[in-house]
Amino acid sequence: MKVNGTHYRSLWWNAQDDVLEIIDQRSLPYEFITQQVKTLEDFEDAIVEMRVRGAPLIGATAAYGMALALKLDASDAHMDAAWERLNETRPTAINLRWALNRCREAMRPLPEAERAAAALQLAHDIADEDVEICRQIGEHGLKLIREIAAKKPAGEPVRLLTHCNAGWIATVDWGTATSPMYHAHDAGIPLHVWVDETRPRNQGALTSWELGSHGVPHTYVTDNAGGHLMQHGQVDMVIVGTDRTTRRGDVCNKIGTYLKALAAHDNGVPFYVALPSPTIDWTVDDGVAEIPIEERSPRETTHIQGTMEDGSIGVVQVTPEGTPGGNPAFDVTPNRLVTGLITERGVCEATPEGLAALFPEMAGA
């Protein structure tokens, strides 16, 4: 996607310096800052500190981390140690472990002398695959939006609601939940997107920055406004992303997603989840019982970053001194509340049978 008229991916390989470049997402939407990731420690910090964030992007970043590790030392012992270090950075998003496993399994049979080059090429492939997967998600989601638009009076926008940022900066390009929006907007379908603020890190501001840069009409609303908007017929469809989806279609996403699904169910609003297949965890059935939920720093709930009156970027405390903060980063939406799953292979029901029909070779693994 474009930033100030220039096309960017959320990460890219700098061949001249032989190093990975990323967008430091901690500074968005206030400043656009890119930086190089040069050491394995840098890769760990980038993921933990959420300089890179979003399940697909974390996976691609980890793949480049493995490539760097094998460039430094291509032995089995060092590869396994790098796998462990990177795997510990974020516990919930399954793409991280998927990418790490894919890298290690592909490199293990190769002679050590060939591993560094092969690992770097695999990281490039994983990044390119993510772009194409997200593009295809957009094509399939576009069909759903077209169906809604066809039933509305001429010129009336399709009103979508999204939660958190499942945009191009959470993937390598296009995004998951945003890809259908971009495709619909580019196809000339009138849209209006309700963007949840998504506390505690206000990641809806990233979605607003993305949509605004692309010219998609949108409004930034509080997390608790979604139910009200649905009650008053102002939401035609909810589209969210996911960090891990179980084999039966339970969806783990940013905290607050479950409440949106409940409100959508109560008001008869279609609730769709856009996901690339690497986000499906075929080893897990019951998401509520089995998916580990990351507990992040309480400071994310007690403090907030923003632009100060003098234009500088600052952090302010929003709670009384000494008030403890709790910060579960994700929740799980049971499949019974999900209207459908938008994948790179099409749209299916959030059921074991629905997912298995689209991905028979994975479901039987």
TrEMBL record:
Single GO MF annotation: S-methyl-5-thioribose-1-phosphate isomerase activity
Membrane-spanning intervals of the chain: none
Catalytic site: D243
Metabolic or biological pathway: Amino-acid biosynthesis; L-methionine biosynthesis via salvage pathway; L-methionine from S-methyl-5-thio-alpha-D-ribose 1-phosphate: step 1/6
Chemical reaction(s) catalysed: 5-(methylsulfanyl)-alpha-D-ribose 1-phosphate = 5-(methylsulfanyl)-D-ribulose 1-phosphate
Entry similarity comment: Belongs to the EIF-2B alpha/beta/delta subunits family. MtnA subfamily.
The name this protein goes by in its record: Methylthioribose-1-phosphate isomerase
Gene encoding the protein: mtnA
